[in-house]
Amino acid sequence: MNDTYYQPQASRTSDAAAESIPSPDGHSNLINTDYTIGQDNITSGFWGLKVDLHSQVFAWSSLVILAFVTITLALPDVMGPFFGGIRSYLTSNLSWAFMLSTNVFVVLAIALIFSPLGRVRLGGTKATPDFSYPGWFAMLFAAGMGVGLMFYCVSEPLTYFNDLRSGTTGPLGQQLSTDEDAKALGMAATIFHWGMHPWATYAIIALALALFSFNKGLPLTMRSVFYPVLGERVWGWPGHVVDVLAVFATLFGLATSLGLGASQASAGLNALFGVPNTSTTMVLLVLGITAVTLVSVIAGVEKGVRRVSQVNMMLAIVLMLFVLVMGPTLLIVTGAADNLMNYLQELPVLANPFGREDDAFIHGWTAFYWAWWISWSPFVGMFIARVSRGRTVREFLIAVLLVPTLVSVIWMSTFGETALWQLSQGYEGANNAALELQLFAMLKELPLASITSLVGIVLVMVFFITSSDSGSLVIDSITSGGKVSSPRTQRIFWVMVEAAIAIALLLGGGLTALQAAVLITGVPFMLVVLTSGYSVVQGLRSEPRV
């Protein structure tokens, strides 16, 4: 990534220009407002540090986060059961709401592709794309998935396969009599969680942000999306609440990824080098990853996150190709095609939120995933919006929905098919390993296991470094009233806050606490994304089409 990924095309030449509201190229319907970016900001420095912060959004976000971290660290024995109870309550009572909402996002995205509104161009009728198709596709995928791909690429297929063969706790509450049927449905369920539903969630938020910034002339921040609903009140307390919710969602979504990454890296280091797999090790890993992230932030976007991202993508491709070549190559290639067809075939029943007989599956897996994607949507959506100026709505939605979904099919098929093939050949290592160790146990059965496992650990860390660096920029932009060139110390602050939340959650309940935090922030932000869908349709209707 470089700094042009984070600034609208019309605002790259100077600091002053960077803070101006981008003007559309060609015909578009600007929203007339007296609001100027940063008008409610505090700009006076303290302790020798320059600040540029939205007085209300930053204050409330910081105070609530500080209280949360303090209470969780001070009362871990109390907060652990509390998080467990919250997670159980939300998944048991609101899983239908998460599933219904994400279905709405998918239907809306597909409808807009075929609608005449798909001919609207982001940035105005004469806007041209900033990036080529290959570069744009690579950034789209890199933005939306990270640590989860490493953590669940082996564990999900194996878990669903075992559940489907042994009882009724798996997808759709079925007990299948043959390994082939169990593998087919298990892989379809895995891809379901990494396919169109998460990407539709990202797409709706991203489309709304791009439309109201590039076409309507509003600041690139979440509150702008609510202008069709709130009008000028969006610059007051209603807008403050929307932006604060976006900060919470992004912070807890990133903290969950960091916590999952730390637990997997700790397990991998224990298996490779005998490092104790304890909370202390996880905390030290969080601190280490955060330190590297801070170096990236200090180096700047061009020299820091761009280079880390390049290493990240290269390592991911190398690891996937290694497993493809050294694993059951023909089975992976043919399996990927079969898995895609099975996913499309099972999609209607897997996405159905009512009358299900697989509570363990939808409560333990689907509801958590949907809340996680919703929590990531402001961060990923803002990134996707910034790199998509000049695209028509139709090509934007096709790319954001289909290209990353196909890459997810290939990734999950490569690792999942290899793990299931090993199980069929009598290798029980991955199947018997703990959740966070299953990837390393699968790699152990392939050549150069120590090297590939080390690459896997590095990938887990680098995935989060890129997400944290980019996420801190988005959070800083929101808490700076939509500015994109605020003091770098503010990004450093938010990176440290992410680490503090992750540590607090790891010590205050582990994986259950991480999942509970995502669910807590996912509930209110689900309403934000739904409102974004309404705003997108209203905004597109007044736009000229190419």
Quickly describe the structure.
The chain has 546 residues and is mainly α.
Q: Describe it for me?
A:
With 546 residues, the chain is an all-alpha fold. 72% of the residues lie in helices and 1% in strands. The protein has 20 helices and 2 strands. It has helices spanning 15-18, 55-74, 76-114, 133-144, 147-152, 155-166, 179-194, 196-215, 227-230, 237-273, 279-299, 301-326, 329-351, 359-386, 393-424, 429-432, 438-444, 449-479, 488-507, 510-541; strands spanning 41-42, 53-54. The protein has a two-stranded antiparallel sheet with strand order 1-2. Helix 2 (55-74) packs parallel to helix 19, helix 3 (76-114) packs across helix 14 (359-386) and helix 10 (237-273) crosses helix 19. The longest helix has 39 residues, at 76-114. The model is unreliable at 1-18 (pLDDT under 50).
Features:
546 residues, mainly alpha, 20 helices, 2 strands, 1% strand, globular
Unreliable runs, pLDDT <50, ≥5 residues?
Answer: 1-18
**Mean pLDDT over the residues:** 86
**Helix content class:** over 70%
Q: Strand arrangement, largest sheet?
A: 1-2
Percent of residues in beta strands: under 5%
Q: What letter string, H or E per element, gives the SSE order?
A: HEEHHHHHHHHHHHHHHHHHHH
